[in-house]
Amino acid sequence: MKWIFRVLFICLITFIGIKIKTEFLTKDIFNVKAVNISPISKSLEEDILPLKNKILGKNIYDIDIDFLDKMLKNDIRIKNVDVEKEGLNTLSIKIDEREVAYYAQIKNNLYLVDSDGVIFGRLNEQKMKDLPIFNIRDKKEIENYMKIFEKIDTGSLKDLISQVYTKDDHCISLILTDGTVIKTNLDVTREKYSIGETLYLDLIKNKKIEYLDLRFKDFIIKCSGDKNEK
């Protein structure tokens, strides 16, 4: 007899569940009336607007949060996203948008690069900032440049870099804002960048520096004259 009562109880619970889903949860009170999106750039906001309009009016329990999360992450401009249901009829979308840290020049086009080395847009999508430009032929070069910037991130040298390009297999050139060329490669240590920065900042007080080579045991410096020379 016990198994009969158990079966009847399960059937009753199932029936109540179906009734709730088909009659109660489908009421208009659960239709999405607001989609709150965190502050984002104008271009991304315009692209997400059709999705927002598509969600409005839908039953909040019919929305697949995981699918929506993955779909938004497919946009290369979005670094991270968090989608949550709030209350009976509100959806919250918090977006962590990629921020430009560098520019990448590929042929005649300039692209946006974030601090992770990810290319996520074109220059015309944002107002240009005073940031280093990577001259690259392939994405592997971006990885190399990022490794170099990780080593000089603690000093002021990074803020003085205007352009970066690969001269050959043994030399990567960092062009500073005053035209000085820092010759380096992937083997140069963090300590050597720090010493090279100090040396550079001391020399430019009185000298015009053509280049500073960090690739060897000793620092190789070429000066083109006194700073006050005409």
From TrEMBL:
Keywords: Cell cycle, Cell division, Cell membrane, Membrane, Transmembrane, Transmembrane helix
InterPro entries listed in its UniProt record: Cell_div_FtsQ/DivIB_C (IPR005548), FtsQ_DivIB (IPR050487), POTRA_FtsQ_type (IPR013685)
Domain Cell division protein FtsQ/DivIB C-terminal: 104-215
Species per Swiss-Prot/TrEMBL record: Cetobacterium ceti
Residue stretches making up the POTRA domain: 30-98
Record flagged with keyword Cell membrane: yes
Gene Ontology BP annotations: cell division
GO cellular component, one term: plasma membrane
Designated name of the protein: Cell division protein FtsQ
Residue runs in coiled coils: none
